[in-house]
Amino acid sequence: MGAAILASVDGEILPPEEATISILDEGLLRGDGAFEVIKLYGHHPFRLDDHVARLRRSADAIHLGFDEQALRAEIAALLADGGDPDGCLRIVITRGGRRLLTIEQVPDWPASVRIALVTLTPSEILAGVKSISYAANMHATRLAVERGADEAVYVDAAGTVLEAPTSSIFWTAADGTLRTPALAVGILDSITRAVVVAALDVEEGTFPKQDLLGARAAFLASTTREIQPVSAVDGEDLETTGDEHAAAAAAALRDAGARDRSEAEA
What we know:
The chain is α+β, with helices and mostly antiparallel strands. It has helices at 26-30, 48-61, 68-81, 135-146, 191-199, 209-213, 244-265; strands spanning 4-9, 12-14, 33-41, 44-45, 88-94, 99-104, 113-119, 151-155, 168-172, 178-181, 202-205, 217-222, 226-233, 236-237. It has seven helices and 14 strands. It starts with a strand and ends with a helix.
């Protein structure tokens, strides 16, 4: 993520370097907690209700309670206080009962990305949960970098395509069909993914890695990346970097952001 600009700890707004929690908080000691990252457009959090609802589902899945009313009030106060108007809002709920918010700069993502396929054994007990236990996700990216790529895309032991560590994967198959793994394979119910699926003609399913390896084009989709074309898969350049599907997905996301902000201001 980008640099943090402003923080809130249980409602106390302060500079990020002054924000602290106890070293005994199990969110820190054991990576036990849940989180969300929300794109800001002119200080407006994109699909805030959807993100808070997913945070609630993640927290419920790991039996973690939090005060949603207090959290929403703290979000409003932090956004009103300032920070990067087109940055990101991070929400973290820890097992120690802390509500942590930061406004962060959006990372300076490159125009395209090379991906490497990394085999993952998914944990069914945490399927679909945005847990703060992200060590495996970060290490997958490091493994991809060691192989000359920029980012990983997970496949399971059977070779089924899943997702990237912090984003969804879409690709244009040889026949021109836009594809993405179905939620049933155990991936996160990404809000950015949902926007793309709702706006475009997308085939969701269980796809082998050979389908992605034979793709004409592909892109990653996430809160901070938005739509990022893929240039190569496992060292093989794709036919094109950023096709009509990537352009349509980027347009759909821009339109969704504009509508969301307009409805909030109405």
